[in-house]
Amino acid sequence: MNASNDPDDRGVSSLLARPRFLCLLLAFLTLIVFSPVRNFEFLNYDDPLYVTSNAHVQQGLTLSSITWALGATDGGNWHPLTWLSHMLDVELFGAGAAGPHVVNVLFHAANTLLLFLGLRTLTAAYWRSALVAALFALHPLHVESVAWVSERKDVLSMFLFLLTLWAYGRYARRTENGRRRTEHPDQRAEGRSPTSVLRPLTSGNYWLALVFFALGLMSKPMLVTLPFLLLLLDYWPLARMPGIRCQASDPRCHVSGGETAAAKPATLNSPAGRSAAKTAGLSTLWRLIREKTLFFLLSGISCALTYLAQKKGGAVMSVSSLSLGLRIENAFVSYARYLGKLFWPMDLAVPYPHPGHWPWLRVAVGIVLVFGVSAAALRLGRRLPFGITGWFWFLGTLIPVIGLVQVGNQSLADRYTYLPLVGMFVVFSWGAAAAAARWQLPPLAQGIGALLVLCGCALGTTNQLRYWHDSGSLFRHALASSKNNYVAHDNLSSYWFNQGRVEEAMEQSREALRIEPEDPVACVNLGHGLFIKGRLQEAIESFRRAVAINPDYAAAWSNLGTVFLEQKEYEETLKCFEAAARIQPDNPAALNDLGGLFLLRKQYPEAVRWLETALRLQPDYARAHVNLAAALHQLGRVDEAVSHYEEALRLTPDDAVVHVLLAGIFLHQGRVDDAIAHYREALRIDPAFTEARQKLQALRAPVP
């Protein structure tokens, strides 16, 4: 439908009424508002798991990394397409943060355009679809999904979700048009149709929708509710269910047989007409459910895989940890909180701590709100059908993450709204248009109102983006915006350690333990600070406490082993490093620790085995190259040792110790000039390196 024919076009400039120009404008605004992310850093929250410390991802797209992605359940989910997208980032942009951030923004811009074009195609409403897309693009609640590299799964799955809706819309339109052309009037009245027309398996668009849906589930399993959402779209705007009565002015509202409610009032209001409509409705509903059998099957498979993955990763909390009653309480409260943040997006934090128990008044408000709005949507559904689709879109798509199956310890998360809020944007946009028509507001007033709302969203998003620049900014803001947020304290502690601010880091760890005494991360962080300060026995106690809380916490075992190594208690060190490597067999750091210990104990073949495994996982691991070179040298494999020392220097050219080690081999081989060059380079890097100075003096070479 051309924009010029849209009933909403009156009083709007012809330039904005052109779809291509409006698409360019939406994309431009999205890119401008989110442009600061190109300078953002990786975060210390999930980004190490998904990108920076994931050896498989850092390999880029290789046969081994692709094979790993297809079977990995790291992070508590099976989403191979998300892993592959991160690997492609590394392949295209290297290890930096700018490329992945920009890709997230490009996906968000693409999703904005797909949402606009898809809604316009489904509803024939130009400006209302544009407003939904603009709200989606600019709302502050979507900052978390776009500005956080780890949430690639959000923007990628949404992209595939919208492609699924596009393909399904094409299938549904062609199917219904064909049905109406070929049906006998009696078949229309009874909701029956020739099987030759209603065979979804013969439709290319149906299969295309199914493929996009499968790919979307392989990006993020939150899409499992899509089959139910397709049924909502069948109700409105596709109008594939008979017996629907709604405003005749809406071109997408039909009764069975494609006639508007105004066309046959006498028939529909008679007892026979109502009975026929009910029969037709049930028959068609069952047909539409059967039509989506394969979609339901994919959802079921995805649910099973996700539950197993999260159970394996220890992310699913047991009923003994959080009772079903408390989960239901939190679900109702979370729905109310999401709606509150929709209209007043302030104090946004990551994560939002779960309080364990909510005051009864807040629970009651949530229950009344959910059931009250649901009842209103159903009551007004025939006159305002968009309310049913929009509200239950929001309500239903949040179910997988509303906390009934509690994953992690958060009560809600902004990123979970990336898909669900589209439903509320539809309610807002179509509801505002209906109100404007009822009150006869001029187009200029409508445009100014929409512009003010969008400007408010853009300002809120710009403000919220400031906090996502780095981990320090993000978690300081999280602590200012939430209470008892021990996870934010943990991550701020890690950030201060990386900045060399040990006292501040330890203070954050102590505060986290005050809030949650059974927090293994805080125990490890505190132990790390104690180790730095030389308080080794206290560090051991802190690390032991961490492994007692979570025996499968590899970092705790690694740190405990490091303290024992400092005390030269090699047997205890070996037990700890072996535990870390057993828990994380694909962690190059754990394997390097174990290989380094065998090197120290002069068990060179064992050292080579572990170190080669570490380098297969992470070929650019400089320290593993150094350790492997030392082990190979002791085994007499000198040429291989030289090769690994040279690779280590290529990766870290300012490592003076490696220059001296390599110079020693060259000197032994009679390559005096090469040895002198490396001794001189070591002194240039570290003028106080006594061994390098003494070697040059012994060789009577000029000392720099």
Mean pLDDT: 88
Amount of helix = 55-70%
Oligomer: single chain
Number of domains: 2
* Uncertain spans: 1-5, 7-12, 184-198, 245-266
Label the structural class.
mainly alpha
Largest sheet: 2 strands, antiparallel
Work out the helix count: 34
Number of strands: 2
Strand content: under 5%
First-residue to last-residue Cα separation = 78 Å
Identify the strand order in the major beta sheet: 1-2
Principal-axes shape call: elongated
Radius of gyration: 31 Å
Topology readout:
Blueprint: H1 19-33, H2 47-52, H3 55-58, H4 63-71, H5 80-93, H6 98-123, H7 126-138, H8 143-147, H9 152-182, H10 185-190, H11 204-217, H12 226-235, H13 265-269, H14 271-291, H15 293-312, H16 324-343, E1 352-353, H17 360-379, H18 385-397, E2 410-412, H19 421-439, H20 443-465, H21 471-481, H22 486-498, H23 502-515, H24 520-532, H25 536-549, H26 554-566, H27 570-583, H28 588-600, H29 604-617, H30 622-634, H31 638-651, H32 656-668, H33 672-685, H34 690-698
Antiparallel strand pairs: 1-2
Helix pairs in contact: 1-6, 1-7, 4-5, 5-6, 6-7, 6-9, 7-19, 7-20, 9-11, 11-15, 12-18, 16-17, 17-18, 18-19, 21-22, 22-23, 22-24, 23-24, 24-25, 24-26, 25-26, 26-27, 27-28, 28-29, 28-30, 29-30, 30-31, 31-32, 32-33, 33-34
